[in-house]
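Re: that backbone. Tokens:
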């Protein structure tokens, strides 16, 4: 009986430790920074090209020379011309806008 209880307690401890996850990125109230370039490659490259050179959609590789970060964020969130809004949202949209604004 004691051996079964000990096994149950030990097994539960291991299970709970495994479910705890890695909180090193969020320790101290900090959150991991989102990589805007990765967001753009995952969400925008399909239409705008792997090098953001355009094709079926306008080129983005010099977007920062034409629009401010705030204007780019507005386009991402609300759309423009044929581009629908809301493909990327929240912090990912902000990170993508920040990254795209650096392309000049």
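Recovered sequence:
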């Amino acid at each position: 009986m004691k051996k079964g209880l000990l096994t149950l307690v030990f097994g539960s401890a291991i299970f709970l430790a495994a479910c705890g996850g890695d909180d090193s990125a969020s320790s101290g109230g900090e959150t991991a920074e989102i990589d805007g370039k990765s967001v753009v490659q995952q969400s925008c490259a399909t239409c705008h090209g792997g090098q953001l050179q355009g094709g079926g959609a306008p080129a983005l590789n010099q977007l920062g020379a034409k629009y401010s970060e705030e204007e780019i964020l507005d386009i991402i969130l609300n759309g423009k011309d044929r581009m629908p809004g809301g493909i990327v949202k929240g912090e990912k949209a902000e990170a993508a806008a920040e990254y795209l604004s650096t392309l000049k």
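The chain has five helices and two strands. The helical segments are 2-19, 36-43, 45-48, 69-78, 90-101.
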